[in-house]
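JOB MANIFEST
job_type = single_chain_structure
chain_count = 1
residues = 291
[input]
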Amino acid sequence: MTAPPSLQPGTPRTPRTPGTPQTPGQPETPRPPRPPLRVLAPLRETGKLFALAAAVTRAIFRRPFQVREFIEQFWFIASVTILPAALVSIPFGAVIALQVGSLTEQLGAQSFTGGASVLAVIQQASPLIVALLISGAGGSAICADLGSRKIREELDAMEVMGVSPVQRLVVPRVLATMSVAVLLNGMVSVVGTLGGYFFNVIMQNGTPGAYLASFSALAQLPDLYISEIKALIFGFIAGIVAAHRGLGPRGGPKGVGDAVNQSVVITFLLLFFVNMIITAVYLQIVPPKGG
């Protein structure tokens, strides 16, 4: 018995159109995969960001630790952020001192100007200034470096050799941003406080003794703690977002530039959102002094 013409060797098979019944003996044509929904793209990117944050957190406690890479990144981020942070903190402290001084003068509480302005500088202005500068200067450089390595397929070559790019490149950079943020936060707090003191005493004819004495009336040690905790968290967010966008550029060199811009914008949005949550929780847990 001879086989049907459609099953004889060498006879090309016609593809079956969707919806037509399958002929017995003919293999089923695989259907093309569904394209991913664009509506779910933000959820996928958010999941990848949290997955990278979890991977970095786990890799921090694994050996070997890249000490040299950490020192190089720490020095680079500190060198590009120290001077801008000091220059930006002076007008921030001055504006806060002038605004708070004007308000307290209207309320007849000029003696609390120093404490109120310093609390605003330490709790809110200082961590945000540090985080924004680290994200704009250090984070953009981290994103551009990792993105250029990605399009040159260096990261793929590292994975082929069994080297984890997260542990080798991302972890030292994230730890460097966190360390610089914590140390830089103290400097910005001091410079901002001195700037507010100068403008309040010189321009608003405030009393130096009252400005300094109001510290003990309103400020407390947990205010400094929450400032450093904010700086630590903000540095972690800036490093993670920069690394996440740098590990996934699209479209070659132009995609690297787009990824740098996206990392800075996303970091800014996350910083203000996280700062609102941390401040609300802190005010509920730690009552104001004298309250």
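[summary]
The mean pLDDT is 80.
The chain is about 75% helix and 0% strand.
exit_status = 0
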